[in-house]
Amino acid sequence: MSQWSQVQQLEIKFLEQVDQFYDDNFPMEIRHLLAQWIESQDWEAAANNEAMAMILLQNLIIQVDEQLDRVSQEKNLLLIHNLKRVRKLLQGKYHGNPMHIAVIISNCLREERRILAAASMPVQGPLEKSLQSSVVSERQRNVEHKVSAIKNSAQMTDQDVKYLEDLQEEFDFRYKTIQSLEQNDKNSALIKQEMLALQAMLNTLDYKRKEVLSKIGRVIHEIDVLMSNMLTEELLDWKRRQQIACIGGPLHGGLDQLQNCFTLLAESLFQVRRQLEKLDELLTRLTYDGDPIPVQRPQLLEKVNFLLYNLFRNSFVVERQPCMPTHPQRPMVLKTLIQFTVKLRLLIKLPELNYQIRVKATIDKNVSTVSNRRFVLCGTHVKAMNMDESANGSLSVEFRHLQPKEMKTSAGSKGNEGPHMVTEELHSISFETQVCLYGLTINLETSSLPVVMISNVSQLPNAWASIIWYNLSTNDPQNLSFFNNPPAATLSQLLEVLSWQFSSYVGRGLNSEQLNMLAEKLTGQQVSYNDYQLSWAKFCKEHLPGKSFTFWVWLEAILDLIKKHILPLWIDGYIMGFVSKEKERILLKDKTPGTFLLRFSESNLGGITFTWVDQLENGDVTFHSVEPYNKGRLSALPFADILRDYKVIMADNVPENPLKYLYPDIPKDKAFGKHYSCQPNEVSKPSDGGGKGYVPSVFIPVSKILNDSTEPHSPSDLLPMSPSVYAVLREHLSPTAIETAVS
């Protein structure tokens, strides 16, 4: 079943979540019509490879054209209209930046997998629940409402200033007219009456000046309150959501909404600034005792400039954290001399700033890191922000060719690179720029989340564990000494993040039973998720009891095994995986003989095994488990084929396949049939002949079970014997002869 088919079967509350991230950037019609094709492409790799992204974009347009031809024949007018619109969008919006559509589609697919994983969980995890609380949503709506109200107030004040300007011009004209008259004329009753009218007009001017200044003050106060409270909280929440998304959590959105709010507030502040400048012009033409402009205007202007400084400083954000294109799902882990990408955005989108802001990237600028190692950035580390590279027209800049290079220490050698010292050292990539606009000069700085620098890819698993632990445990964006004394993590939150590793990396998260097994493995006991605090050492540094590896190394090896060798079976949900030997026997003991389940090895790194239940002649139940298959063996023979062809030689020396039903009662071929590399009846008979006269052969996994043993000897004995050859042997040889040959 395709991923999209699974999505369509979700409950309405999950479908509403899916609806939120499909928009005009990637319409749902295309996701629906091209579901299988879209899921068969590697969008994650294309998101960091421009040439590959361009090829996928062109192929996507071809697929749309084929759908357009089909619906044109069916005369489906609405679908024809929508597909033409989508085709125009793809060609116009993404032709100059094909990687952006790859990022969008990759994120959508990943978010679908996360929602599918969440739907399989009986209870929503604590982290995800906190990120999607109704309080946060309500605040988002309030911020947007208040920003809109502030913008309207600033525009209304513009009209008041214009009225004040017109009123003063009329006063100036009438006053100068009186001043130009002869002295005798000024004593007339008519002129005296005019002077009284002018005095009344001056009183009105004074009142309107005070009124305008009061309205400007209220607008400034509303902006100040909004920035200090709700907008700051919104920005911090977005940064926290970004942290969680980086370690596999829900896709973080809301940056476009924040950009809209920041931009409207900046426009409102600049509008108020122009209003204060207009009042200054009016002041130079007319002032009087008690005039409020010279008293209030300087204070208001100072406050406006202060708010603009703060608004710009908060608007400079890292939109996409540093990430190596070769490891798109392991952001913030950087390898020396390997390129990485990072994207920044200015949330104040003003046309006057296009190509006017040059951003400089540096590493460990403040040298406050606890590391003894020092790095420099090679490649293009200064670029201009623009609105042309982003499909949504944001004012942003993406560095694509930066490389960290380690500097030699004063002793002439590189720093200490112990296995845990390196992966627990945190570094910071900083960015600085300067904005010059309307007489203001504002220096801006921001930094990435802490990154881990590695010099060998073997350090990647532990480095990624450090990134997970940091971003799970703190929302401090720059605590580079975090691992001097790393805090414990709540077990419930850690398990949720571990499930995200599976949903984001291999397409299917973990259910409650699987998480229970991991919890017991981490703690050595059955504990309450909500109360238990797990240490960093227990997670990543201390070996599991009786083993030569840590919990995290064991789990990372399983992720790698799934990704490279058994991904389709995992996505289909046929691998129970995380179940202890004791639990598997409880599950299998009452099942039909031949019922089996698949689980990951607890004693071998990156191994998968299967256990089946059998019944002895006296009625006793027995269990058989094969030695785990690792990636070496699975590279030679697909796991589904192993399950299909696996044979055991029992006491009577007759090979047979003991695997009949996948737990609980699914016929084996029904579960795995679509994953077989070929069907058994497709194998040629010996008489058919093979290429160049040879008999075709296949590997058949065979194990031998002795009377006094419940375990097969070597589960990995792969005999190069075709099924057809074996059939012929059975016709002409006795079981004893076959057993001798096999031995």
Give a summary of the structure in a few sentences.
GO terms for molecular function: DNA binding; DNA-binding transcription factor activity, RNA polymerase II-specific. The protein is α+β, with helices and mostly antiparallel strands and 743 residues long.
Describe what this molecule looks like in 3D.
With 743 residues, the protein is an alpha+beta fold. The chain folds into four domains: 1-119, Orthogonal Bundle (Transcription Factor, Stat-4); 139-312, STAT transcription factor, all-alpha domain (Glutathione S-transferase Yfyf (Class Pi), Chain A, domain 2); 323-406 and 419-454, Immunoglobulin-like (Sandwich), CATH 2.60.40; 504-673, SH2 domain (SHC Adaptor Protein), CATH 3.30.505. It is built from 26 helices and 21 strands. The longest helix has 58 residues, at 189-246. The radius of gyration is 35 Å and the shape is elongated. The two termini are 42 Å apart. Residues 412-419, 681-690 and 708-722 have low confidence and may be disordered. Pfam families: SH2 (PF00017), STAT_alpha (PF01017), STAT_bind (PF02864), STAT_int (PF02865), STAT_linker (PF21354). Its main location: cytoplasm. One of its GO terms (molecular function) is DNA binding. Belongs to the transcription factor STAT family. Keywords: Acetylation, Activator, ADP-ribosylation, Coiled coil, Cytoplasm, DNA-binding, Isopeptide bond, Methylation, Nucleus, Phosphoprotein, SH2 domain, Transcription, Transcription regulation, Ubl conjugation.
